[in-house]
Amino acid sequence: MAILVVGSVAYDTVETTRERRERQLGGSASFFAVAARGRGPVRCVGVVGDDFRESDLGLIRSSGARTDGIVRRPGASFHWSGRYHADMIERDTLATELGVFADFQPEIPRDWLDSEYLFLANIHPTLQAQVLDLVTGPRLVALDTMNLWIETTRPQLLEVLARVDVLLVNDGEARMLTGERSLARAAAAIAAMGPGRVIIKKGEHGALFFGRDSVLAVPAIILDDVVDPTGAGDSFAGGFMGSLAEAGATRGDGDAVFRRAMIDGTVTASFCPEGFSVEGLMGVTDESYARRKAVLEGMMIP
Amino acid sequence: MAILVVGSVAYDTVETTRERRERQLGGSASFFAVAARGRGPVRCVGVVGDDFRESDLGLIRSSGARTDGIVRRPGASFHWSGRYHADMIERDTLATELGVFADFQPEIPRDWLDSEYLFLANIHPTLQAQVLDLVTGPRLVALDTMNLWIETTRPQLLEVLARVDVLLVNDGEARMLTGERSLARAAAAIAAMGPGRVIIKKGEHGALFFGRDSVLAVPAIILDDVVDPTGAGDSFAGGFMGSLAEAGATRGDGDAVFRRAMIDGTVTASFCPEGFSVEGLMGVTDESYARRKAVLEGMMIP
After folding, report:
1. What ipTM was reported for this prediction?
2. Contacts across the A-B interface (CB distance below 8 Å)
């Protein structure tokens, strides 16, 4: 069953202590699509400028995703530039040039409107709501957001939250959104806003799943070497939604299928920081995936 | 089988945003002993001043531990004073008055020298080595340390590390000790220093166990309310060592018994922040323990 993702398709300039990469493929929809590895399949909706290389759209397609919903507009593509600290966790944003993304209006190809799964990546909550107005009854809707929207567009965010099934946020955002220090209380407060399931991402410390009647803590797989962590959160979402689509999950299901999807999200996300841009994700094979899944399960089962 | 713990027995003055408690029972040996809940049983070695209340030694004994090895010296007891930030994680140390602890020389009652398990809490590594010289072949030795000793007494610390089976440190200390950013690499580097097993404590993010041929990530149990997190690390150690002693574990065993002990350490530690001083630990019953263990397992098993 198909997964529709609406988000950014961008260029990232990333600097680490070891290397600097200029204008490499980035953006939430790109990472999500490549991470989902053709499960679904994935249909991407976004916007790029006339500077966007056709070969980068080709990179997304090579994962099995469709890019017909990525429109090209005159102007520059969304460009984010950042520098990671030596810990490869903290980072400074050096520039955010929205370009054509500033006027992004999601246009969904007519035959994609019945996509069964919808991932609303981190964009303005009003745009997220517009997408929800267009689609025709998806089985499951997940939404990502960020501190910017929590701070500047809270009413719109709350409105769209009431209409989704799963919220993915990091721990700081969960606390900011709810004013609760305890993540258990924050998750309960978010559930009261609408999303029956809440995923709290904690980067190198893994992720927490707060379900209907269970909680799951999934550790991050411990990597020997981190090359570029950009996009790991969206990669998690891609693995998570891909898993749910493959299983044919619906919002009415019990927690079990979501707990399994947490594992797939975590395994998937672990490949992302091992390369720049989507390189780490592109190298995943069924074998390397299964091997890493076994490592994760070994880390979890007492 | 008996557990010998050598560490501090102290008074803590703790300030949180809600409350301030003056000179409440603290110290690594105190938390460890109460946390172990009579498993072992636990034999405490430490020093207190003439200001130390007999009733506080009674608190330790009420958990089933023996306090014959806690000697009383003229002068003030070790006193630590700190203030927690609103997040209940960050804290500022306001005062550290060593008192009689400055001249602490561990004196071990003769009939305790054959204790099967030894926990060397966070004290000067030369004192830790002295204890190791005295005891007669324990089945298992675990050691805790801190940034102060890593920075100021590195050669002595490395010497004692070569003689222990399990090291417990937090993530920052593991990185400082080894110079490795990756915790996988840090754990491997520590194992090469001597301890075949390494536990990396991450506070609210749980703990990692690096065993002979396996890794286990145990999440922290998510608490609704944190009253005073002081002593949670030593409580973890108490639950961990208590579990190993109850199982009769030896250093030659496979990882399985240590993985189970990680669960017991985590369950035990979760009670500590729910009250000031050892209050949270004192309230533990077999029922509340079993309930919380079931919660933790539910959080871990995919």
Report:
1. 0.90
2. 84
